[in-house]
Amino acid sequence: MPLLGGVRPPIASLILLLLLVAALTVVGLGGIHAEHVPQAVRTSEQRIAADTALSVRTTIDAEAGAVRRTAAAYTATSTSTPASTLKALTAASKADRGAVLLDAHTGRLLASGGGPVTLAGVKAAEMTSGHGPIPPRLVTSAGARQLLYFARVTLPAQKVDANQDQNQVPSGTERQWLLAVSEALPAVTTYGDGRTAVVLDASGKALVTASHGTPSPDAAGGALPMATARAVSASGQGTDASGNLLGAATGARRTVAGWAQVASATGPGDTDGLGLVVLTSRAVPTTTADAADYWSFALAAAAALVVVVLLLWSALHFLVQRPLLRLYLSAGRLARGASESGPAAAAELARPVPVHGFGELARIGRLLESLRRQLLGESGPQEFPARRGPGYRALAALGVLLVACWAVPMIFMLNRADTATAVPAPVLADQQTRAELAANRVRQSLDQSYADLSDVAGNLPGRSRDAQTELLRHTLAEHKQYRSLYLLDRSGAITLRVGDTPLRTLVHVPGGGGVTTVNTSGRIPAIASYTQVRAVKGASPAAGVVLFGEIDVKSLNSILNRPDLGSVWVTDADCKVLAASVGYRAFQSLPDAGLTRLARAAQSAPGTAGTATSTVLSSSSGPSVDAAAPLAQSGPTAHLGWRVVTAEPAAALRLPAVQAQQRTMLAGILALAFSTACLGWLHVVVIRPLRAVAVLGEKLASGDRRTVLHPVNHDEVGSVTRGLELMRQALAERGRAGRSGQTADPGRSRRENTLQR
Questions:
Q1: pLDDT tens profile 92-108
Q2: Which domain holds residue 222?
Q3: In contact, 264 and 57? CB cutoff 8 Å
Q4: How confident is the model at residue 288 (pLDDT cuts 50, 70, 90)?
């Protein structure tokens, strides 16, 4: 018998697969246990630490880039001195940070200003020998850890400072100075009541600490920082690895912590060599250990499925498999008796054909008995009734229905997670925190684009048109978030543009500066930063009065995509989508009315401070943990009234109730799918061919000697078909012999077929 043919393989596969589902039900559901701190809470804290580390990294990268851009934009002249150069480079800097200029070849201090700058370990010649950007360094100044940012300052070839050694630099060669700026570590923004965020160095020492509400007891000075240092050491320095830890328990609460390295995830970056780590922690209520125990349910469900399997096996074995095998033997015996001669053949035909089973098998058994009697000459053709009882198709359908009685409740009714209680309060609070962090990232990006544009606008006055064009091109190449940069005059016409054609421009030239949406419809939202270009008395005027930088919405979309945050949308004041981490249509409404209500609750009107909010919403796809947060409370984006809305399906969270529902549904789906597939397989290879053989066999028993019966499959049904064909040939030969008056030879047809082959 072929591997996929016959009656045995589909029945055996059905039984084995259903027993496998029963075993998986025990293993899958029995392995779900309640934890004192759910894994979803620990994972959320880890993601919050990673999001906070991303904000710290973005701030450091932006500061390092600003120092380099300031140095690159400075144009040294023959009259430039170290003191005047340093003053020009730090004119717009913070008052409390220090800055120095060093000779790039000798490392000698040329000028200093502001606060103290620690230069221990700074080797100017080595640092300026390469061509790439010089990464920041973490140094200790006056007992506090600070960051040193570096940039090269290029001088014209003819400029050589009188205080420098003329013999060390040949006349006519270009000189370089090294700018070093010392600044405190960036502040950390924390969200969520009771959460503490700490920036640690590689040894686990706290450098920056911030908390919101009452901090956890062991947030900064307990065992968590040292445990974090060990975890970071095990994961390797200079990576964006993250993890979670459990701290001390106090009463019914326990500290859960997450850590993440402040390192670039896309390649070498400014923060890779700093060894900074962000540690966030907060105390959460613990759950009881016996809150969820699914062992008893798993055993009961598996036992019920085993009973179903036994019923199916009994029905298929005793009603299909055994009768078919007996019929197969009977058909072979009659075929030998019909195609051979002698006493042995007569003995084969002398034994009656027992009728087993029902439906098609019973019909074939009766027609075989009729053919046996016709071969013996005991009777003539026999008519069979047209109306018949239920067949094996009904048995297969009843088998699927029997499994469905077990599977349907598993899929739709049992272990259903309660929307109100399935998601713990800490998980809901963490989703709100992550929404606020996402809003902070978007705000940082938009604020930085405005700050960069303001720096460019400050360098436009006094330059020729070609120089202004070159400056805008350089800015566009350096800042990938812009689609285009252009200048508008008083009439709103574009007087200078680099990059792509703007999606749309404002008709009325705005005053001041900030971020705005230029259109309210279309395929792509037009979001732009803008700032005024000041006029310089006695110098060449700028080509326009307002500088616009159109922001590529793809850069905003990339900011929103974070692990385990779900779908994220940025909406305008009317709750229309401007950017998203998933596919969307510009200016469409949020995909659910509940999300729209949540977004409106986060901020009532543009310019208001707003309050982040979160909830659990139910939909056709199941419950989801949703949160909304206002984009900004201050700065150039505060007047927009934008929100950030997040929606994470509860099915993606590792919650016991949700896991139990998922695995219960999976067991039901597998059982229903396996039973349908295997019984469908049985229908294709056994039941449907049996029906066809029964119809042809009844025609043969009724006197049809001309219709040839062709066996389709090499299995039991095919053997029965071949036996019927041999009996047809014997009966046809007997009929021809009777009409010609000759004695029929039962073996003649077989000999003729053998000679033909």
A1: 666 557 899 998 888 88
A2: 189-285
A3: yes
A4: low
Picking from 98, 150, 155, the residue whose alpha carbon sits closest to that of residue 122 is 150
Do 445 and 557 fall into the same domain? yes
Q: How far is CA 161 from CA 73, 78, 539, in A?
A: 21, 10, 29
For residues 265 and 280, what is the distance between their CA atoms, to the nearest angstrom?
19
Residue 749 to residue 726: CA distance in whole angstroms: 8
Together in a domain, 620 and 498: yes
Tokens of 272: 């890779």
- Tokens for 318, please give them: 């005793």
- In the 8-state DSSP scheme, what is residue 651? G
- The whole-angstrom separation of Cα 131 and Cα 534 is 34
SS3 488: strand
Q: What is the mean pLDDT of residues 155-179?
A: 58
Among all chains, which residue has been given the structure tokens 């080797």?
123
Sheet holding 98-103, edge to edge: 109-113, 98-103, 175-184, 144-155, 137-141
- Report how far apart the first and last C-alpha atoms of the chain are (Å, whole number): 23
Is the pLDDT at 342 greater than 70? The verdict is yes
Residues 205 and 159 in one domain: no
Give the whole-angstrom CA distance, residue 427 versus residue 284. Answer: 10
Q: Does residue 719 belong to any structural domain of this protein?
A: no
| Same domain for 403 and 442 | no
**Number of domains within the chain:** 4
Residue 258 maps to a domain: yes
The letter for the amino acid at 278 is V
| Structural domain contains residue 673 | no
**Is residue 349 a part of any domain in this protein?**
yes
Distance of alpha carbon 173 from alpha carbon 541, whole angstroms: 34
